[in-house]
Amino acid sequence: MMKITKKILSLLIAGTLLLGTSTAGSVIAVADPEFSVTSAQGQIGEDIAVNINISNNPGIISLRLNIQYDSSVLELKEATPKNYASTSFGPLGNNPFVLSWEDAIHDNTTTNGTIAQLVFTIKEDATVGNTSISITYDPEDVFNQDFHNVHFETIAGVVAVSCSKHQYGELISEVPVQCGVDGRKAYYECSVCHKLFDESKTETTAEQLVIPALQHTAEEGWHSDENNHWKVCENAGCDHVMENTTDAHIFEWVVDTAATEDVPGVQHEECKVCGYVRSENTEIPQLPHVHTGITHHEAVAANCHETGTVEYWTCSSDKCKGKYYSDSDCTTEIQSVTTPIDK
Which of 116, 192, 295, 323 is least surrounded by CB atoms within 10 angstroms? Predict the structure, then answer.
């Protein structure tokens, strides 16, 4: 009956306004009227309080709001009127929970602030995370003294539910960092709320656990085969060949044992860049004897009584002891320098 009367009165008032004289005036922008629920946070098993607020109120004499929430997470324990002292409530166990207010004997109220405060208990088996408390209403249930419906925007509140006691479980092992691949520090994860904690069980984030990827770094030494040498990345687990390091060997002979006049020597080839070795145990020919103290001996003619000698040369070194040479370079050895008696 009340709703039908509201519609009839609305038509009468509208007709009266059309017959009246309009007055020009400036238009002032006004923020939308709003019903809202404040947000809160709490641990499992705790009580939290939220306010049902009204703002930018243009003037009303009645309201009836439905408060909806997740019953698996929250249990409504208490409702208390605040700025709207005559607010009445439906049963606490109902979801949606209903709150009503009306003042039919006074002019429109434009009071802003908290209509009522609701106290919820976060259930022991609640899921950790965010849950919402929202407001809905029938447009016919919010009106002014002219029985005109007044539109309000509605804004839900959010309750952030956290653990009362974290369940850390086993330490999750570190993931080693690699070249081009991020690593991750060792950490714990709460099995209830899934928050992350470092090794000292200080709360952290996935971003803070990241170990930035390594950049390729050339090793000091060389890798090589029979043709080329190159450098690889020195970081653990990385065998990346460093750019612009592959090149052909540049060989030079290296003497292991020098040759002497007595024995041959030994040598090998070695890359002067990377040290790669080939041609090992290559023989160096034994050195030729170097004559020293060469002495020239003139020819002595034989006679009928004594032998003579031919022209010859000798070397004073021990290696040439007892040797005779037919030339000044001591290159042609002769077995005897004696010439027979001239009969």
Answer: 295
- Tell me the backbone φ, ψ of residue 42, rounded to 5 degrees: -170, 165
Q: List Cβ neighbours of 190 (8 Å cut-off, separation of 6 or more).
A: 163, 166, 167, 168, 169, 196, 197
CA nearest to 318, candidates 287, 343, 293, 285:
293
137: pLDDT confidence band, cut at 50, 70 and 90? very high
DSSP H helices in the chain? 2-19, 206-209
- Say what the alpha-carbon torsion angle 168, 71, 123, 97 is, to the nearest 10 degrees: 140
Query: What does the alpha-carbon distance between residue 298 and residue 339 come to, in Å, rounded to a whole number?
Result: 13
Calpha distance 37→333 (Å, rounded): 124
Band (104; pLDDT cuts 50, 70, 90): confident
- Phi–psi pair at 77, nearest 5 degrees: -110, -25
Q: How confident is the model at residue 1 (pLDDT cuts 50, 70, 90)?
A: very low
Q: At which residue do the structure tokens 């929970």 appear? A: 97
Q: How far apart are CA 106 and CA 180, in angstroms?
A: 74
The sign of the dihedral angle between the CA atoms of 95, 96, 99, 104 is negative
Residue 28 confidence (pLDDT): 53
Q: What angle do CA 272, 276, 278 make, to 5 degrees?
A: 105
Residue of higher predicted confidence among 18 and 128: 128
In this structure, what token pair is assigned to residue 169?
Answer: 């479980």
DSSP state of 86: T
Contact 65, 88 (CB under 8 A): no
92 in Cβ contact with 76 (< 8 Å): yes
User: How many residues appear in the chain?
Assistant: 343
Residue-wise pLDDT for 87-100, tens only, equals: 999 999 999 999 99
- SS3 at position 148: coil
Tokens of 76: 């409504």
The pLDDT of residue 26 is above 50: no
As a whole number of angstroms, the distance between CA 104 and CA 61 comes to 6
